[in-house]
Predict the 3D structure of the following.
Amino acid sequence: MPELPEVEALARFLTERAVGRTVARVDVSAISVLKTYDPPVTSLGGLEIASATRHGKFLDLDVSGLHMVIHLARAGWLRWKESQPAVPPRPGKGPLALRLHLDDGSGFDLTEAGTKKGLAVYVVRTPEEVPGIARLGPEPLAPEFTPDALAAILQRAGRAQVKGVLRDQSVVAGIGNAYSDEVLHAARLSPFKPASGLSPEEVLRLHAAIKELLEDAVKRSVGLAAGDLKAEKKVGLRVHGRTGEACPVCGDTVAEVSFADRSLQYCPTCQTGGQKLADRRLSKLLR
């Protein structure tokens, strides 16, 4: 799933390629991708793209005062094309969900792999009309996201596991499954540690890890072509998606905890005092 660094890079990529250009037309291949109908997506035709920005993991194109807001979800992606096909796509054909044409012939496709569809496109008058944006928590790279602000967030979360708190978009915007694993590894914290149980020193470590990891990921991603962002993200991850590999810090084997629809990775030596966390999926099978 694209998270804050990748969506930030996409926003900057579109700032360079699309801002100042006029939308020629929008082809919808999968009607389910549209989450709003007033104004209609066809109303974007003939309007100029004024800016491309980000809210958490949402991409926001300001099109002459209307906003085309995109959430790529787990398996969605934006694919830039210097030359779009003139013939409209056949509805329901392949992974293509929506195609946007610009006045110079370029544009982008929104695609989604797999059968579980989460890719979402909203056309709204203000970004806050999108429910997911309206309930977003603070941006972790904003100046006001201080150690004290993080400490207050963790205290409000109570006994909730710190991994889940970091992934909750209404608590902190933009951090998903992958970067929460990376942040907790860098901060040397168990993903299952209660949020309100962190010591002041642990809060400082967590805050520093959030800022440093996200800022570094943004720096590595910005300037890359949209098609190269996924590979760059994977290369930069130290524990997420690396079950069975050696931890780059201590050399221990990266372990995994599996859930119904996702998994987390961590280093036992760096994060849990050498202890292996119970795999929730396996525990249920053994009952």
Observations:
- Residues 282-287 have pLDDT under 50 and may be disordered.
